[in-house]
Amino acid sequence: MQQPRPYKGKSLLAYPDDYTVVDIETNGHGDTFDIIEVSAIKVRGGEVVDTFSSFVRPRYPIEWFITDLTGITDSMVWDAPGPKTVLAAFADFAGEDILIGHNVNFDVGALYDGMVKYLDRPLTNDFVDVLRISRKLLPDLPSHKQVDVAAHFGIDTQGAHRALKDCEICNGNYRRLKQMAKEAVALTVPFTVYGQGQNVPAVYLIADRGEGEGVWRILEDKGLPCRLIALSVEDWGRDLSPWAAPAVFGNLPFGGGADAYLARIEGYIREVEKDFTPTCRILAGYSLAGLCALYAAYRLPLFDRIVSASGSVWYEGWDEFVRQTPFARVPQAVYLSVGDREKFSRNPRLQTVESATVALRDHYAGLGITTRFDLNPGNHFVDAPERLAKGIEWILSVK
């Protein structure tokens, strides 16, 4: 019987640029189950920057069909490091990254159980399942096994069923599926409207369609009267960054294209509000989109209230900009939040997010703006739709 995994990360339908691909090979089942190989590939800005791979010494001889499938023999693993050593090294390698794999729920579950058993701590990283994505984007493919998806894309599968090679195949599949998703989005309208009504607020949410749907379901369940307009983004690092800045994740710098993106938002507002006059306009976003929502208040006199959930206010030069730049329109209210574990990030700049958000709250409150700050449980990648909906619910309640 499977043990409960209360701290297991969430399965995301997303296409991150920074992530760690993971794959494991295993032996046995039930009480004899062992991980015998762990491999991972670290990717930043779409480029491979590091790899990790290690055999794991098992407790029991390797079953013949596992050797037949993988080529791994007892002699290859008998002097390998034990599970405690390998799992600790993998956890250090993966850090807080989103994990990507094919049928990755199995790998994540096995790693979770192993880390609890040998390290006395769980694996909490969120994860993206390439099998799930392939089924969504390639519905007519007869088989969605990793090697069959790779064959569809013309990716070499020689050496499959060894963990590191499987990571390479998975990464190739993911990159091609991500490009397919990007091309599909480019063919769709740049915004999606949820809700009806005339005398209601308009909540403009910078988010992909999946996140927009998640937020809307929560708002609808709560019976909150508003229209939610999810605004799509082509390139988050480029379109949502207020000015060019050095890379924080990997080697890809921020493009500083927020002014151009906000100009497009003006056009979207005109289109949305052709037959609708909202009682107020709210701009909301999560992470870098939360920073862009705040930045918009200094550039466009269009928004009455701002929601920045886990906003990237650690951004280089942001504090100086805020203190030297007047608002285009002083917002009636600003909502800020951050996860209580975000300050424990391995990245020194990201470690400042909580203190920077608290300082921003104090600054806005000092200007007489109705401001709320919430410290939510968890790291940056936890409960984004819920955190956004929480902020929107509060901002809608402000009189």
Summary tags:
2 domains, Nucleotidyltransferase, domain 5, 7-stranded mixed β-sheet, 14 helices, elongated, Rossmann fold, 6-stranded mixed β-sheet, alpha/beta, 399 residues, single chain
What pattern of helices and strands is seen along the backbone? Answer: EEEEHHHEHEHHHEEHEHEEHEHEHEHEH
The CATH architecture assignment of the largest domain turns out to be 3-Layer(aba) Sandwich
Quick one: CATH class of the largest domain?
Answer: Alpha Beta
Give the beta-strand count: 15
Strand order of the largest sheet: 7-9-8-12-13-14-15
Gross geometry: elongated
Number of domains: 2
Alpha-beta content class: alpha/beta
What is the helical fraction, as a range of percent?
Answer: 25-40%
Q: Give the termini distance in whole angstroms.
A: 52 Å
How large is the radius of gyration? 23 Å
Largest sheet, in brief, is: 7 strands, mixed
Q: Helical segment tally?
A: 14
CATH topology of the largest domain, by name, is Rossmann fold
Average pLDDT rating:
92
Uncertain residue ranges: none
> β content, as a range?
15-25%
CATH superfamily of the largest domain: Alpha/Beta hydrolase fold, catalytic domain
